[in-house]
Design brief:
By secondary structure, the chain is an alpha+beta fold. About 40% of the residues lie in helices and about 30% in strands. It has 6 helices and 11 strands. The two termini are about 45 Å apart.
Length: about 210
Amino acid sequence: MAKQNKLSQIKKLLDTAHISLEGARQLLVELIGHKDNEAVEVSDKAREVGKESVEGEEKIIEGVFDGQNMIGPDGKQYSVPANYASKSKLVVGDTLKLTIKADGTFLYKQIGPVERARIVGILAKDETTDEFRVIVGDKAYRVLLASITYFKGASGDEVVILVPKDKESEWAAVENIIKASEVAARVKQQQVGQDQPKPEESGRVEEIEDLG
C-alpha cells in the first residue's frame, strides 16, 4: 500500500511540474511577443526545401512537419492526420509530400526524415486540459494524443520517445510505452536478485559443508 501511495504522489508531482512548466512557457511567449525559434526554423526549412506542382488533376505539395501539421513553402499550414503521424512516428523537421487528389483526398508520404535521438521519460497528464506530456529531466515534451491512446498510456508510465538529434524540440514522437506496473515489477525483480546470495558466497558455503 505504501508503494501505491508513493506512486500516486509521484504522479501528482509530475502533473504539477508539467502545469508549472507550461504556465511559465506561456507567460514567456506573451512577454517576448514573437514566434518560438522552433516554429521559425520549420518555416525557414519549408521555404528552402518545399515546393508545389501540378500533375494532371493532382496537386503536389512538399513541406515540413512541425509536430502537428505540415508547413508548406508559402507558410500555409496543412493538417496531418494524428493517426498517420503517430503510426509513422513523425518528428519535427521531417519533410513530407502531400498529394491532393481531384476528389479532395489528402495523401501524405514521409520523404525526408531527420536524424533522430531516442530518450526515455515519464508520462504526465494535465488534468485541466487533458493533454499529455513526457517529462525528461526539467523538460516537458508535447506528444500526440493518438499515440498515447494507441499504447493505452497513463500517468506514471515510462515512455520511449524520438526527437530531432541535433536540435531542441517542443514535440516528440512516441515509439513505445512501458506500463508503470511493468516498471514496478522489473524494479522488484531486480531487488530480489540483489538479495540472492552471490555465486562465490554459495561456493564457500558448500566448501565448509564438505569439510564438515
